[in-house]
Design brief:
With 287 residues, the chain is of the alpha/beta class. The protein contains 11 helices and 8 strands. Strands 2-1-3-4-6-5-8-7 form an 8-stranded mixed sheet, sandwiched between helices.
Length: 287
């Protein structure tokens, strides 16, 4: 941990290829600011990403990183955290990556309460593959492959997390830089699985869920007299269908992360004396 790290220290020398105006720029900047503000530095940070526009984020951030396969970022992040609990692990994904093919992994990472931060860039569309409906797209959202809309209700990721036993559920907006970074900070500092669904508008393929829409629609829980430790209040807001919220909806103050409940407290990359011949070579292959 360091108090001298600036968020720019987390920027790599690779220039993002996201579309100009993409919400992912703001999402990533908030992640870097939150990591710096919580005393982390690139040498103790591991970023895991899946497939989609969000999957490029590990290339654009200066830290240890792995660009995995579609929907499988959370299992990798879980493995990294349990192999070395001292690392700050941040997993990044998109609504398609996380709530479709990766939905099963999401449920189980949540219920295990692994001590990592999961940031989902929710633009309510498949952007990288040119504009198909995603799990969080509106029922009447028209695309080239769903000209009459998906004709099915969107996934409620907050409700899915709550039903899976989440200990920290939050939502932010990539355009609200200060608030977004503040919410990510809270997720990082939480002892357990810190889940943040980020409204990260796609300016190329989604002309419905725009920056203006979220600016006009979002209700900031900081100004709504909401107690994030009140489970019933959190459940009511999460299941409410007529409002979009920003802030921490639910946090379990008694949360104990997986590595503590299961006694995984030592760095598994350290090989003890007496290990079998060739063990270190095997570890080096995977680390």
């Amino acid at each position: 941990m360091s108090s001298d790290v600036r968020f720019t220290d987390f920027k790599s020398d690779k220039q993002p290829t996201w579309c100009p105006g993409c919400g992912d720029f703001g999402t990533m900047n908030g992640m870097m600011k939150a990591l710096a503000n919580t005393g982390n530095d690139p040498d103790n940070t591991f970023v895991v990403a899946g497939i989609g526009c969000s999957g490029k984020i590990g290339t654009y951030m200066h830290s240890y990183a792995l660009h995995g396969v579609h929907g499988r970022a959370l299992p990798v992040g879980t493995g990294v955290k349990l192999a070395n609990p001292d690392l700050e692990v941040m997993v990044a994904g998109g609504d398609g990556d996380g709530y479709s093919i990766g939905a099963g992994h999401f449920v189980h990472a949540v219920r295990r309460n692994v001590d990592l931060t999961y940031v989902v860039m929710d633009n309510r569309i498949y952007g990288l593959t040119k504009g198909q409906a995603s799990p969080t797209s509106r029922e009447d959202f028209e695309t080239s492959t769903t000209p009459e809309g998906p004709q099915q209700p969107p996934v409620n990721p907050l409700a899915l997390a709550l039903a899976s036993g989440a200990t920290f559920i939050a939502q932010s907006f990539s355009s609200d830089a200060l608030r977004h970074a503040e919410i990510i900070e809270q997720a990082i500092e939480h002892d357990g699985f810190g889940f943040v669904n980020v409204f990260s508008p796609c300016v190329t393929f989604n002309d419905v869920d725009t920056y203006d829409y979220f600016r006009d629609s979002l209700v900031d829980l900081k100004e709504a007299d909401h107690d994030p430790h009140d489970y019933d209040d959190a459940k009511e807001k999460i299941l409410e269908g007529d409002k979009e919220y920003m802030g921490v909806l639910w946090q379990d103050e008694e949360s104990v992360p997986y590595h503590q409940t299961h006694g995984v407290t030592e760095d598994m990359t350290e090989i003890p004396d007496g290990a079998a011949d060739g063990t270190m070579d095997l570890v080096r292959e995977f680390y």
